[in-house]
Amino acid sequence: MTKISNQKMMDRLAEAARTGGISRRSFMHYSAAAGVTASAATGLWTTAANAAPKKGGTFRFGIHDGNSSDTHDPGTYVSRQQIYLAHQYRSYLTMINPDGSLGSDLATSWEANADASVWTFEINPNASFHSGKPVTAQDVKDSLNHHRGDSSTSAAKALLTSVTDIQTDGDHTVVISLAQGIADIPWLMTDYHFAICPSDGNGGIEWKSGDGSGPYRIDGGDWGTQWDLSRHDGWHLEGAYFDKIFMIVLNDPNARQTALVTGDVDAISLVDLKTKALLERNKNIVLESVPSAAAITMPMFCDTAPFNDVNVRNALKLSMDRDEVISKIAFGEATKGNDFHHSPAMPYWPADIEQREYDPDKAKSLLKKAGAENLSVSIHTADSVFSGAVDMCVLYSEHAKKAGIDVKVVREPNDGYYSDVWLKKSFTAVSWGARPTPDVMYSLAYKSDAAWNESRWQNEEFNNLLLQAKAELDDGLRAEMYRDMAILARDDGGTLIPFFNNFVYARSSKVMRGDNLAASWELDGARAPSRWWFAS
Fold first, then answer.
1. How far apart are CA 348 and CA 368, in angstroms?
2. pTM for this structure?
3. Cα separation of 215 and 496, whole Å?
4. What average pLDDT does this structure show over 300-324?
5. What is the pLDDT of residues 158-184, one digit of tens each?
6. Are 197 and 139 in contact, with CB atoms under 8 Å apart?
7. Cα separations (Å) of 444 from 159, 205, 453, 486?
């Protein structure tokens, strides 16, 4: 038997072990026939067999950001507790897969008309709520309408302003009509607010009981403390390998990490980067660092001097050593920003755009061109923006000195930062959560009339491209448009983007996962309980 054929045999044996198609005894027998030692075969079996998902056990995970005032109303979702819980007990039309692609949840398929102004979603006929009621198109219609209309108080109301009508066509077809074509509607349906709840029969939804159609059903719990759930055997998708899950709110980072180290939980949602080295030395713990679309931005008001001169804006962008910021502030757990709000974790990523680097000499040249030599500016920040926000701005101030720029760091109070400083002060530091597509991000913060246009940037060419890209169903053409928009934002925009921060979390080595981790939220896109499993 040749070495090549031996390798092919072992590959086939490993695949059989992963899929449960061979017993351990047979695996060992055939491995010996291929010339593999008993100890090596045992190691191969353990690795391959544990790669196959198995049902059983209770998965306990500690999360950050939970409040006693949280509710089951999807229109109020904002905390990690609400978002993570929703992905266990409720379903959405679509989901972001571990590899970053768009996948099915309740919707088995979706299709647009020629100009993407009408979208038709087919609902899985096998889906059911935990109460036993089938999920119907009426439930979907009423759940989406919960976020629409003058009386809606939903935080996601603005995301559906282009929707003009939602109709059902039988029990399993939903038709969404728009005022303009939007190609991102299937992606938009992954937004954490758009959980599908049972209809109340009067055009509204019944959300208070916590009934859902997700992989796990709620057995009990309290907001801000803990939730106990068990597998929903009628779930319409694959997964949900654990029998039960306990979601425990641990807002204190030391408490979270201690619980993981002592084995009181099997995973935690957020690792304190300052102490992650301690966890890395623990052989019983696995750290995950997932590049994401979450970002740190430093917007400058483009309508306010001195930032109304593009040369000044670009000089300030060139005056940051992003590599040192990532090393010292993000502890290496970040992707370098290039001054356009489009992460490699998003679709249509323009990989060929030249990376902006630290260049104080070029910055000096631009300031001279602008007649702004010896520039002095203030940047406003607070500890609550993100861990290390003030330190980042102080480090940036040191970098800028080499360009002849005096950056004064103004430390603002944590309380009220986003109501009293952001969108009010002309140069600030901001933390943005991940958005699924560049259209969502650009529409929220870079479109000329966006309520959150934090740099007050106005660029007619950018706005026209954004409008065209929304309705473009050809992925190649759409990618070209986003590339052109990225270059405009990079070279003319008013936002310095130091980095896109990684999602850094941890799990016990007893917990297994698939080959990829979703970059939409921590813990595998908030779906770890339905995607992970225990090793045998």
1. 37
2. 0.80
3. 41
4. 98
5. 889 899 999 999 999 999 999 999 999
6. yes
7. 9, 27, 7, 15
